[in-house]
Specification:
The chain has 381 residues and is an alpha+beta fold. It is 17% helix and 38% strand. It is built from six helices and 25 strands. The protein has a six-stranded antiparallel beta barrel. The protein is flat and about 120 Å long. 23% of the residues are buried.
């Protein structure tokens, strides 16, 4: 049988309930270990470099305002054997070059000779990088070692054209991308299963989930194979049968399904009126009074009083008449009786019955949490 999942969306005074039929064999809370935990040390590394983009159609940096671009052009020419008088640098006037920062992510287990994508972003006052080509740029890691070299034509997916009085622009023309634009020259050394152990880090630390992972692995590979170190770490001893087949062992572990657990939590964002409630949120019996006080101030400027036709004088402007009206809506005292195991939809329906909008619900949730009637964590963004 498929599982039924109820999704509740809060609108302005309206609760929409959508029933989705999901054909799942495992429970809704079950997930593969590879989706909720990663091997310690297996991660990407960020790379960065400074370079030049050439071939721009007059949309490059202004050499008067971007002195670093001018200096970079001069250094590049000198390195390529072009002799220039240093005193004449200021006289170089080109508009088809832009200084850029190049960033990339070095994936784990990347080998020399493989390629990765790079992002190119303008540093100066270039108007567009469309049609440009990135000149060979070394990409360094946090240890200042070169791990890749980037070069190639940019893909912008944008344009920007205009004159003095009009301009047409689509998307962002000063940021581009080069697919497979960097060639890996060095690798980050890493050995899996060193000392016969593996350490998994949970994406969301939780003691119960860490204990479930250990029990599932011990059931599959024998007792004492895994044990939780803390809420976010599970240490695994590689069995002797898999000492020479560490990749197979990891593949078998990551395919295991684990029942996840999470903290009962309500997340609210007052700026957007968004409310997200976890499935384990519980409310005790609580009374909620919902009402609004509207203060209306209205100023009515009266017409000026004109003097008689045969009398001397000027029009007189009487004082502005101000009317103040206070209207208080009838507050509703609603008792929310939340039985054990109540669903998110029932909580939303109960609060929506008093005519609360999403922004009202945020204030109501804060008050309920302060009264101690909410069994869960309230996070306000």
């Amino acid at each position: 049988m498929g599982k039924i999942m109820r999704i509740t969306v809060l609108g302005t005074g309206i609760v929409f309930t959508i029933i989705l039929q999901l054909c799942l064999v495992q429970p809704v809370t079950a997930a593969r270990i590879k989706d909720i935990a990663k091997i310690n040390g297996v991660r990407t590394n960020q790379l960065i470099g400074y370079g030049l983009v050439t071939g721009l159609n007059g949309t490059g940096d202004d050499m008067k305002n971007s002195s670093f671009t001018l200096q970079s052009v001069y250094n590049m020419m000198v390195r390529n054997g072009i002799t220039l008088d240093p005193t004449q640098i200021a006289n170089i006037k080109i508009k088809n070059v832009a200084a850029v920062m190049v960033t990339a992510d070095l994936p784990p287990f990347a080998k020399q000779g493989s390629t990765i994508d790079v992002e190119v972003s303008s540093m100066g006052d270039s108007k567009s990088l469309a049609g440009g080509t990135l000149i060979m740029t070394p990409l360094k890691g946090v240890d200042h070692k070169v791990y890749a070299v980037a070069q190639g034509p940019l893909t912008i997916g944008a344009f920007s054209f205009g004159g003095k009085t009009a301009k047409a622009q689509k998307n962002h023309p000063t940021v581009g991308r080069i697919s497979n634009g960097a060639l890996i020259e060095n690798i980050v050394p890493f050995k899996i299963g060193e000392n016969g152990t593996l350490t998994y880090q949970l994406e969301n630390a939780d003691f119960t989930t860490a204990d479930h992972i250990s029990k599932v692995i011990n059931t599959a590979f024998g007792p004492m194979t895994a044990f939780p170190v803390d809420s976010g770490t599970v240490k695994i001893t590689v069995p002797k049968a898999f000492q020479s087949k560490i990749v197979d062992f990891i593949a078998n572990i990551e395919s295991l399904n684990v029942e996840m657990d999470s903290v009962a939590r309500v997340v609210v964002d007052e700026r957007t009126g968004t409310i997200v409630m976890g499935k384990d949120v519980k409310l005790s019996t609580v009374a909620v009074s919902h009402g609004n006080l509207n203060l209306i101030v209205k100023e009515t400027p009266p017409a000026a009083v004109q003097p008689n036709p045969l009398e001397a004088g000027q029009p007189v402007a009487p004082p502005v008449q101000t009317t103040t009206t206070a209207v208080e809506e009838g507050g509703q005292l609603t008792v929310l009786n939340m039985p054990q195991g109540v669903s998110i939809g029932e909580i939303a329906n109960a609060l929506n019955s008093i005519g609360a909008t999403p922004r009202d619900l945020i204030a109501i949730f804060q008050a309920i949490k302060a009264s101690g009637a909410m069994q869960g964590e309230l996070i306000v963004l």
